[in-house]
Amino acid sequence: MALPEHMLETVKNDPLIGEIEAIQDGQSVDYWSFKNATRRKGAHALIHYPAMMVPSLQGKLLDAIKKASPTVSEVLDPFVGSGTILVEAMCRGFNFTGLDINPLAALACLAKSGPYYVEAFEQKCFEVCATIRADSGRRHYVKFENQEKWFDDEISRMISRIARGIENEQKLWARRLFWLALAKVVRTSCNSRMSTYKLHIRKDLTAERANPIDVFENVLDGFLANLQQQYEVWSAADLLQGGRYRQSVQVKLGDSRALLSEEGLAKKFDVVMTSPPYGDNTTTIPYGQYSYLPLKWIPLDDIAQDIDPALLSNAYAVDSASLGGSKRKATERGSELVNNYQSARTFSNTMPVNSSEFKRFASFFADLDDCAEKIANVTKAGGYQTWTIGNRRIGGQRVPMEEILGEMLERRGVDTVGHIRRTIHAKKMAARNSVSATMSQETILLARKRQQSAVLSG
Ligand SMILES: C[S@@+](CC[C@H](N)C(=O)[O-])C[C@H]1O[C@@H](n2cnc3c(N)ncnc32)[C@H](O)[C@@H]1O
Question: Are 177 and 43 in contact (CB under 8 A)?
């Protein structure tokens, strides 16, 4: 798909379109590609996570929405991942709610949300490193199936010393930062390849590996610099009070379909800004597999209460619980999609209804349809939604995600007002991966909930 001449395609007249035009006015045609985006800094740099969004791009969209609708204050990201939108919303003093099914994403978001007690954290880093260096114990901190496959015994014992040191820390906010640092250590010290998000044994198992304790100390140095930088920026903007964010940030772990139906979250949002998964995690980006080994070392209670341990019972459990992870009743759910949406009908015409391709397509989009409904329900009348989406292939064909999602939203009284098309430069996408052949470009679907929300029946 070639980029259109204009980066923004207007579908409907709306104040947001005017604000986005003002931002891109006088810029090059590939402005939204953010080709020269600088390295992630501050809170954005605390974690590497698959398919992270470009912070400055999403920040510009939030600015445009704020100008189009100056009273906005409540922002929701129902697939919050590493928390790119969380940090950009905090930069602008919004209240924020983030949801994700992956405990590692929740941990990253909780750590990013603060408090920013940087001096105290520096002292705690010093203490935890001293405790770890003084620990000569050989006991394994955790035992799990296939541990010896993924970690050399000596590496396991060193990571155990780090985990014991972290556990010793009294303050939960500090432990969360330490666990996030440990997650980075695990990624570099385990026997899985760094070149893929899937779990795959490295080829060079005998190659010498950095000492995990040295890596941990380096990661903490980076954390301190990034937290200090974020602290200075937010203090200057008067966004912090005694190191705490002045507004509210809520991070919830779970399936966004369930969480958005809960009483506890019964609030409405001015803005929903998100990037959903591209398809089922098993055949696109396996966020769960990516997070599995780090999470084996992190006490789940330090992330959230009552996490179902089944979520980590094997490397595929998070991905199976994610959108499109269950193929139950895929054929029936698929025929409902085909009945309801013209673009789903056209796409699925090319594949037999009992083929595995159809089931894969149907289970993901039926789940997304549920989400579209729940998300529309919690969007205020007149509120904006932005969806950053990639177009992928199933059975060699481009899946018309943009068209299908547009129809799903319209059915719930949320109208597409425009699209921004952009080339992906920064994302570490698996370009070598055939299912993602079309993922070098993505679309940002801009939508707005009708004031008089007449929901279409059908
Ligand atoms: C494209 S990523 C979001 C990346 C994020 N925008 C960032 O910049 O890091 C999609 C996220 O959706 C989450 N996810 C998948 N199914 C979900 C579900 N049913 N409920 C909540 N989150 C889900 C995945 O765990 C993943 O973190």
Answer: no
Q: How far is the CA of 252 from the centre of ligand 1 (A)?
A: 12
Cβ burial 329-363 (10 Å sphere, 16+ → b, else e): ebeebbeebbebbebbeebbeebeeeeeebbbbbb
Burial of 142 (0-12, 13-18, 19+ CB in 10 A): middle
Q: Residue 103's closest CA among 184, 180, 198, 25? A: 180
| Cβ partners under 8 Å of residue 371, min gap 6 | 78, 256, 257, 260, 276, 323
- Ligand 1 site: residues with CB under 6 angstroms? 49, 51-53, 79, 81-82, 84, 99-102, 105, 255-257, 275-277, 287, 322-323
Q: Where is 450: in which H helix or E strand? A: none
Q: Residue 324: left if φ>0, alpha if ψ -120 to 50, beta else—which one?
A: left
**How much is the pTM?**
0.94
Q: Which residues contact 45 (CB under 8 A, 6 or more apart)?
A: 39, 222, 226
Q: How far is the CA of 100 from the centre of ligand 1 (A)?
A: 6
**What's the first-to-final CA gap in the chain, in angstroms?**
32
**Ligand 1 atom nearest to CA at 255:** 20
Query: Which residue minimizes the CA distance to atom 3 of ligand 1?
Result: 81
* DSSP for residue 192: B
pLDDT, tens digit, 9 for 90 and up, residues 157-175: 999 999 999 999 999 999 9
Q: Which residue's C-alpha comes closest to atom 18 of ligand 1?
A: 255
Q: Note the pLDDT tens digit of each residue in 303-352.
A: 999 898 899 999 999 999 999 999 899 999 999 999 999 999 999 988 88
- Residue 274 CA to ligand 1 center (angstroms) comes to 9
Which one of 56, 79, 367, 428 would you pick to mutate in the ligand 1 pocket, going by the greatest count of ligand atoms within 8 A of its CB?
A: 79
C-beta separation of 444 from 386 below 8 A: yes
Atom number, ligand 1, closest to the C-alpha of residue 367: 19
Which residues in the chain land under pLDDT 50?
1, 3, 5, 427-438, 457-458
User: Measuring from atom 16 of ligand 1, which residue has the nearest CA?
Assistant: 322
Q: Is 53 in contact with 388 (CB distance < 8 Å)?
A: yes
Rounded to whole angstroms, the Cα distance separating 380 from 263 reads 17
Q: Determine the pLDDT at residue 82.
A: 97
429 CA distance to ligand 1 middle (Å): 15
Percentages of the chain per state (helix, strand, coil), in multiples of 5 = 45, 15, 40
- The CATH number for 8-116+234-449, chosen from 2.40.10.220, 3.30.540.10, 2.30.40.10, 3.40.50.150, is 3.40.50.150
